[in-house]
Amino acid sequence: MHQKTIALGELATARSGDKGNHANVAVVAWRQAGYQFLEEVLTADRVAEFFQGLGSSHVDRFELPKLGSLNFLLYDALGGGASQSLRIDTQGKLLGTALLDLELPVPDNVTEMLRGTA
Amino acid sequence: MTLRIANAAGFWGDWPSAPRRLLETAEVDFLTLEYLAELTLSIMASQRKKSPAAGYATDFVTVTEDIVSLLRTQPQLKIVTNAGGLNPISCARAVGKVLVQCGFGNLPIGVVFGDDLLPKMDTLTKEGCEFLHFDRGEPLGTLREKAISANAYLGAEPIAQSLEKGARIVITGRVADASLTVGPVVHQFGWDWNDWNSLAAASVAGHIIECGAQATGGYSTDWKSCQLANIGYPIAEIGGDSQLIITKPDGSGGQVTRHTVTEQLVYEIGDPAAYVTPDVIVDFTTVELAALAENRVAVRGSTGREAPESYKVSLAYADGFTASGQLLVFGNDCVVKAKVVASLIEERLNQDGIELARMHTELLGGGDGLPGMRPPPDGLREVMLRIAAYDPRRDAVAAFARQFAPLITNGPAGLAGYAQGRPSVRPVYSYWPTTVPKELVFPEVRVLDADHWANTTENN
């Protein structure tokens, strides 16, 4: 039976951080083929939609192709940031882990994108 | 010649035994210890209000006691730290006393100050500084009266000067985190302060190691791949030609891989093509990594351009009060019950005429760690109810904090966790990021023996 979607966590690792009331999420693809696929499908809009519950005003995406990484900046995502947020996660430490659950369509060459022993 | 620079503290509260463990398992030229997160200075400001000699990272004094024997067995070892916080002189005095007691009375300690702008706010305002908010562009205006700390992020030059004057331990206040590494590197290799690509390489090294174990397998979504109990802290090996390798002590836990290094490179940055430090603006998009061997990753291709003409400033102002409480809510109906408990607290406050400016309720275990993402799953037997409140008035928040304990006898059954005691009311210090022209800030360096610092009666 064909898988219809694949979790981002099969294709990459992630780490989130904070700058004031903004959060950044860095996604690092396991393989070059995976980075190329994510550059196409893991858009700022897709990430914004995934995190819409946070109330972020907008999301920017930056590319670091030499590092196989995409950096997403989620503006005003932290409920006031470390100094003012009432949430348990004032600094957005959970965002990286959460994003890896995002489901993406399965590309034809998915086996070139998985972790493997590269 | 290759300089080996390690980091063994990424923030105030990092693993206390990390510095000793690192020095017992690796020989390094420099150890950096980073203690100042965005908000740390505001905590230190309230400490200093209560006691004029307070306001520095006391952890560093404990670390000094812990590693003093290693200063003898590693004679090449020097330490660079921002543990000085708001009171670097007081920090130097405390550290000096420890060193004197251990026979290191003539060890030179360099103190860097001049980052503290709070005493100069009036002067700076007269000279035209509006302290515009970095994102929103608004002037600071009357919030100036509520400011409790204002510190410029100084760069690497005063650190290099301290080392040139013979310091073996350099204690600073607020400096840019990467500058703790750039200072030693420029001092060692004699680079020009406008050699942007070389400064970029040193800043990249500093940024990678500044958060300690985050570069060596900590804070990783791939956490199953390494041993964390004995995680090694990072070491940057830098050559005079800007060659950079990231590694960790042999035999230690954790891992250094393309992923751990990339994640730390891209950590807490906005536009990667313009990572601004006081020393240089770095372009991370030209950087490439290569795994040379297990736990040895080469970092190549760093490029940079001219540093900005202003320092970034972290300013904090008093902005109300906050408290949060948690109770475990147990039972098949725990989700419904938790919401009822939250509304009881709010309603009882309203009955007393108190309406809090902000209240936030979370069902932890029910998916609220990230708000608005998922509803609670069916079949939960227990959930942690957490409620946090904010109000400009201390007594309103104190009234909120007193609503938890009564629920033991006048709330629903199936609640636990009262033994933690009444939630404490904390002051809120809001963060106002801004800038100040470099020409209006005067970094100062003073290098004296530990003996002299131990006996100084000054406070900063």
Which features would summarize this protein structure in a list?
heterodimer, A: 118 residues, alpha+beta, Alpha-Beta Plaits, 4-stranded antiparallel sheet, two-stranded antiparallel ribbon, 3 helices, 6 strands, 19% helix, 29% strand, B: 460 residues, 2 domains, 10-stranded mixed sheet, 13 helices
Fold topology:
The complex is a heterodimer of chains A (118) and B (460).
Chain A (H helix, E strand, L loop, with lengths): L4 E3 L4 E8 L2 E8 L2 H10 L2 H7 L8 E6 L4 E6 L20 H5 L3 E3 L13
Antiparallel strand pairs in A: 1-6, 2-3, 3-5, 4-5
Chain B lengths: L1 E6 L10 H8 L4 E4 L6 H11 L8 H15 L4 E4 L6 H14 L6 E6 L7 H6 L20 E6 L4 H8 L4 E4 L6 H11 L6 H14 L25 E5 L4 E4 L10 H8 L9 E2 L4 E3 L4 E6 L2 E5 L2 E3 L4 E21 L3 H18 L6 E7 L17 E10 L2 H8 L5 H4 L4 E2 L9 E12 L6 E6 H5 L6
Parallel strand pairs in B: 1-2, 2-3, 3-6, 4-6
Antiparallel strand pairs in B: 1-7, 4-19, 5-14, 7-8, 8-12, 9-10, 10-13, 11-12, 14-16, 14-17, 14-18, 15-16
Helix pairs in contact in B: 1-3, 3-4, 6-7, 7-8
Q: Your description of this structure?
A:
The complex is a heterodimer of chains A (118) and B (460). With 118 residues, chain A is an alpha+beta fold. Chain A has a single domain (5-80, 92-102), classed as Alpha-Beta Plaits, CATH 3.30.70. In chain A, 19% of the residues lie in helices and 29% in strands. Chain A has three helices and six strands; from the N terminus they run βββααββαβ. In chain A, the strands form two sheets. Chain A has a four-stranded antiparallel sheet. The longest helix of chain A is centred in the first third of the chain and has 10 residues, at 32-41. Chain B is of the alpha+beta class. Chain B has two domains: 2-314 and 434-454, no CATH class; 319-431, Alpha-Beta Plaits, CATH 3.30.70. Chain B has a ten-stranded mixed sheet with strand order 11-12-8-7-1-2-3-6-4-19, sandwiched between helices. In chain B, helix 1 packs parallel to helix 3, helix 3 packs across helix 4 (88-101) and helix 6 (157-164) packs across helix 7 (179-189). The two termini of chain B are 38 Å apart.
